[in-house]
Design a protein that fits this description.
Elements: H1 2-27, H2 33-38, E1 45-46, H3 48-51, E2 53-60, H4 62-83, E3 88-94, E4 98-103, H5 107-117, E5 121-128, E6 134-140, H6 142-167, E7 173-177, E8 181-187, H7 192-200, E9 205-209, H8 216-220, E10 228-236, E11 243-251, E12 256-257, E13 261-268, E14 275-281, H9 283-295, E15 301-305, E16 308-311, E17 323-326, H10 332-344, E18 351-359, H11 361-414, E19 418-419, H12 421-450, H13 455-487, H14 490-524
Helix pairs in contact: 1-11, 1-14, 4-6, 6-7, 6-10, 11-12, 11-14, 12-13, 12-14, 13-14
């Protein structure tokens, strides 16, 4: 039995020492180099409410994703009608999910095309004019529209998460609220405006040909040739800082998009060392880019991001290898930000900020101070009560209480969990629950002593009888904490984290550590009477 005491002491002391070492990086900023090589040096991450930062609620305009989808169908339909020699008049998107189509010629031919390639577009109405021209209104299938909206929200969530991860924010909270809203919390953010710009950019990369034959001046007066569009390049004067917009008359058809992009990096051009974006396409994109450049030598290819022309170089020759670049007098920060959004992918639908809060560091410090005071007061009152009511046994429970708090903070550091203000509330609750387990044990021991048993027998029976009750009560709370963490959002999850690890530490300290102390007193010190 004495040998068992020794090994249990070594085990519990080793666990406690390791826990203290895990907490040290949070308490002591500068540690020796050897320490960082041996011990994990993750600090306890503080939530938005404790260290300040940004809180955003975004609303994804999922209807825009449906519009874009129907617009692509319209363009593909127009190309297919032309390729199959089917005479077509108007082919235009109307409203959000409809296409107006005017066709003539062999009815069987265009009916087969619509049936085989465009079955997701249902016929809303149709009529034939005296000239044999059929006018139809096609509408996107409602189930397909709902699926596009859901996919757009899911993709927006993932895209924003990727952007923020590359931006370098520690422990961000990015969750879906309802069906079309995204909650974002960015603790410790230093540049809120840049973060908003990074998150909200659609980042739709497109390659379109410049219409060399069209008259730009005429188009600017409102007479835009069919199949063309006017977009602008934003040019900043390096001396005055003035901005002017240069118009481009472009073919409406998009030859390639950022979907085939593999990588985007910031590079410096050799002569003036100005940053630009080096693009690298995947295998499909590389082949497509080679075909596009090969078929359009001596023509200008515009590189467009979010409907803004960044450059429109002349294609001198076929470009193999799947590489291109975006130039445009960027600052280094602008180039880095642009590279991040391109790497993370385009948002499938625009997002707008409907709620924004910035928590200042001073407010966060006030929260930390208030939280620490609440923990100290609650712990102090519990310590005094236990000593007053249970004497030496109460002091043993207080040792378990201190270890319980150390183990919770060590778990937060080791698992890179985030401590929030509700998390501090959970820590206060776990302190109360830790004492509750010790009270159950002490009352059982007192009951056994009243029946005339020896201190040693009373301790054995007290722990044995209280063990099942402690496990039952704590396991049910553990399950509740797990569900809170799984299905809750930021503040609820912060509360659940400290409650969960507080209970785990509580079971260990109340059942095993305090038992070792009692065993030491009765077996090693051989006390004849318990102070309880």
């Amino acid at each position: 039995m004495l040998k068992s005491l020794k090994w249990r002491l070594i085990l519990y002391a080793a666990i406690t020492l390791f826990a203290i070492l895990l907490i040290l990086p949070t308490v002591i900023p500068l540690l020796p180099s050897w320490y960082t090589k041996i011990i994990p040096t993750e600090k306890i991450h503080l939530g938005l409410d404790l260290q300040g930062g940004m809180h955003l609620v975004l609303e994804a305009e999922a209807d825009k994703a449906v519009e874009s989808y129907v617009e692509r169908i319209k363009n593909n339909l127009k190309d297919d009608l032309k390729d199959r020699g089917i005479p077509a008049g108007k082919v235009e998107r109307e409203k959000r999910d409809q296409i107006i189509l005017e066709v003539s010629g062999e009815k069987e031919k265009w009916e087969r095309l619509l049936r085989e390639r465009y079955s997701i577009m249902q016929e809303l109405s149709s009529s034939e004019s005296s000239g044999g021209i059929w006018k139809m209104v096609l509408v996107l299938d409602s189930k397909q529209a709902d699926q596009i909206k859901k996919s757009a929200i899911d993709q927006a969530l993932e895209t924003i998460r990727n952007r923020i991860d590359q931006f370098g924010v520690s422990e961000p909270e990015i969750t879906l609220q309802g069906t079309d809203r995204i909650l974002i919390q960015l603790p410790g953010i230093k540049d809120p405006q840049r973060a908003k710009s990074l998150i909200g950019r659609t980042a739709l990369l497109e390659f379109k040909l410049v219409d060399e034959e069209g008259d730009l001046e005429t188009a600017l007066k409102g007479n835009i040739p069919e199949g063309d569009v006017i977009l602008y390049q934003r040019v900043v004067d390096p001396k005055t800082g003035g901005v002017r917009k240069v118009p481009y008359l472009l073919k409406e058809k998009t030859l390639m998009t950022g979907e085939v992009l593999k990588d985007a990096r910031v590079a410096l051009e050799s002569q003036f060392h100005e940053p630009y974006i080096a693009l690298e396409f995947d295998d499909i994109g590389a082949k497509l880019f080679e075909q596009i450049t090969g078929a359009n030598v001596k023509k200008r290819l515009a590189i467009i991001l979010d409907d803004t022309v960044y450059s429109a170089p002349v294609i001198q020759e076929r470009i193999p290898g799947g590489r291109a670049q975006i130039t445009g007098r960027f600052t280094t920060d602008e180039a880095n930000e642009l590279a991040i959004v391109l790497r993370a992918g385009a948002l499938p639908a625009p997002v707008k900020i409907i709620e924004e809060r910035t928590v200042g560091p001073s407010l966060g410090q006030d929260s930390i101070r208030t939280g620490i005071i609440s923990v100290l007061i609650s712990a102090g009152l519990v310590v005094l009560f236990m000593i007053f009511y249970y004497r030496v046994a109460g002091g043993i429970a207080d040792v378990a209480l201190i270890l319980n708090t150390i183990f919770v903070f060590a778990a937060l550091a080791l698992l890179r969990a985030t401590l929030t203000l509700p998390g501090i509330a959970g820590l206060v609750l776990s302190i109360g629950m830790a004492v509750d387990a010790n009270i159950l044990i002490h009352e059982r021991i007192k009951e056994e002593l009243r029946w005339g048993k020896t201190p040693r027998a009373a301790i054995d029976q007290g722990y044995h009888r209280a063990f099942t009750t402690i496990i039952d009560s704590n396991v049910t709370t553990l399950i509740a904490a797990l569900f809170l963490y799984q299905f809750g959002t930021g503040p609820v999850r912060g509360f659940a984290v400290t409650v969960f690890w507080g209970i785990v530490a509580n079971i260990f300290t109340a059942v095993f550590v305090t038992r070792w102390i009692f065993d030491y007193l009765t077996l090693k010190v051989k006390v004849k009477k318990l102070s309880i």
